[in-house]
């Protein structure tokens, strides 16, 4: 992973949804360098938020990446401008090898740069280097999630978005994945991550937003959210 530039995404008055059904309502948030986590109950609009930011859904409102406006509903332009999304469910090509899956993550870049990024991905994810020729569909859930993250890094993003990366993983793999996320952020790639694993996500993050029914209901430093009554009662089962 190359040193990137600690990007800042500023979102103002964002609305988005499906066929006239508005899920995200007039949302404003700041994704600063480091790791920002988005929490909330099922159906709160977390995935919809990431899709709208990644250009996969039409939206209203303003999204600025390092001060420059990103277009609505233009995923290719968003990738070119430095956004990468690891969607829920990983969406790997199961009949292709690890190497082939990673190469597909670099489809927009020249072949030489792609080869350099592939070599770097194998340095950063040694577990994948050992399994470069293995078919992605035969790997464990945690390994597949690592392929998905490494593939997203192949585009050399300024801002990496992850939708529930720990879903279905054993606790040890969750820890390993979150430590990879921290390392990515420490190398200057800003991270925005949706998580259901509230305690571990807030322990790994710098800041967080809590969504309910398409709106932000709490936000702040991760440590403060972890200690807040609202998060403790609603998500951590602490009275
Ligand atoms: N393709 C779609 N067409 C119509 N409605 C959708 C579509 N995708 C999601 N929705 C609706 O939008 C709302 C928000 O869904 P979203 O997936 O963004 O929530 P979420 O917070 O990510 O939930 P979860 O934690 O369950 O993944 C839900 O009411 C959902 O039914």
Topology:
Blueprint: E1 9-18, E2 21-31, E3 35-39, H1 46-53, E4 59-65, E5 68-69, H2 75-80, E6 83-86, H3 98-105, H4 111-124, H5 126-129, H6 141-153, E7 159-163, H7 171-186, E8 190-194, H8 198-204, E9 207-212, E10 215-221, H9 222-227, H10 229-235
Helix pairs in contact: 3-6
The chain binds adenosine-5'-triphosphate.
If you had to describe this structure to a student in words, what would you say it looks like?
This protein is α/β, with parallel strands linked by helices. It has a single domain, classed as Rossmann fold. It is built from 10 helices and 10 strands. It has helices at 46-53, 75-80, 98-105, 111-124, 126-129, 141-153, 171-186, 198-204, 222-227, 229-235, and strands at 9-18, 21-31, 35-39, 59-65, 68-69, 83-86, 159-163, 190-194, 207-212, 215-221. The strands form 2 sheets. The chain has a 6-stranded mixed beta sheet with strand order 6-7-8-3-9-10, with helices on both faces. Strands 2-1-4-5 form a 4-stranded antiparallel beta sheet, with helices on one face. The protein starts with 8 loop residues before the first strand and ends with a helix.
